[in-house]
């Protein structure tokens, strides 16, 4: 059976049932920016494509003793994102 994508009915994102774990839904587009400050701290930011503002963010970190087990590759820290 073959069917064109344009023939498949689509359910709009915001009209689908809202789950109990969903606090907020947005139909706009965005992207995630990851920033590694060092070997133990990572910042995750969700930015809207329309204005570049941060709409959500959180950090992931780990204990210093866990960092000592990592091997640093000697690469210079850099980012192309702003």
Can you give me a brief rundown of this structure?
With 82 residues, the chain is mainly β. Helices cover 5% and strands 30% of the residues.
Range of strand content: 25-35%
Which residues form runs of ≥5 with pLDDT under 50?
none
Mean pLDDT: 76
Strand neighbour order, sheet with most strands: 1-2-3
Q: How helical, in percent, are the residues?
A: under 10%
Radius of gyration: 20 Å
Shape: elongated
Give the distance, in angstroms, between the N- and C-terminal Cα atoms: 47 Å
Give the biggest beta sheet.
3 strands, antiparallel
Order of helices and strands: EEEH
**Strand count:** 3
Topology diagram in text:
Layout: E1 30-38, E2 41-48, E3 54-61, H1 64-67
Antiparallel strand pairs: 1-2, 2-3
What does this structure look like?
The protein has 82 residues and is mostly beta strands. 5% of the residues lie in helices and 30% in strands. The chain has one helix spanning 64-67; strands spanning 30-38, 41-48, 54-61. The chain has a three-stranded antiparallel β-sheet, with no helix packed on it. The longest helix is centred in the last third of the chain and has 4 residues, at 64-67. The N and C termini lie far apart (47 Å).
């Amino acid at each position: 059976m073959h069917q064109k994508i344009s023939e498949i009915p689509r359910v709009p994102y915001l009209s689908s049932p809202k789950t109990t774990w969903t606090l907020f839904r947005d139909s706009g587009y965005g992207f995630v920016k990851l920033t590694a400050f060092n070997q133990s701290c990572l910042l995750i930011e969700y930015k809207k494509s329309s204005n570049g503002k941060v709409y959500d963010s959180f950090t992931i970190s780990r204990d210093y003793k866990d960092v000592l087990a990592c091997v640093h590759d000697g690469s210079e820290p850099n980012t192309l994102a702003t």
